[in-house]
Amino acid sequence: MRHFFTIAAVVVVAAVIALSASAGGRPDTVRTVFTVEGMHCDGCSSAITASLEKADGVVEASADHEKGTADVVYHPRKVEVETLKAEIEKLGYTVTGMSTEAVEG
Questions:
Q1: What whole-number distance in Å separates Cα of residue 8 and Cα of residue 47?
Q2: pLDDT tens digits, the chain, 105 residues: what are they?
Q3: Contact 65, 39 (CB under 8 A)
Q4: What is this structure's pTM?
């Protein structure tokens, strides 16, 4: 019986390693907060939010002109952070920084 549990444990560990490797070790969902210069009003915030929400892989997005930030939750396997940055910059705003963290669950 001990032998069975040892084999089962090895199979589970191997499956976890295989899944992690196939996923590239990246979390399923991440949040990036961009520091954005050039937003002056609600229209600016709305334009950035709408543009980011259209990107494939984005779960939610919001921009705040008063804070000078754009907050995006997305699936990094579907969209890269540089693509999201480009979405903001193509609207005429400047991204001066960003901070990314994994989102649990």
A1: 53
A2: 444 333 333 333 233 333 343 455 668 999 999 999 999 999 999 999 999 999 999 999 999 999 999 999 999 999 999 999 999 999 999 999 999 999 986
A3: yes
A4: 0.74
Phi-psi region of 91 (alpha: psi -120 to 50; beta: other; left: phi over 0): alpha
Count Cα atoms within 13 angstroms, Cβ side, for 5: 2
**Inter-helix orientation angle 42-53/81-89, to 10°:** 140
Owner of token pair 């600016």? 44
Close Cβ partners of 56 (under 8 Å, ≥ 6 residues apart)? 78, 79
CA atoms within 13 A of residue 59's CA, in its CB half-sphere: 13
User: How far is it, in rounded angstroms, from Cα 70 to Cα 34?
Assistant: 5
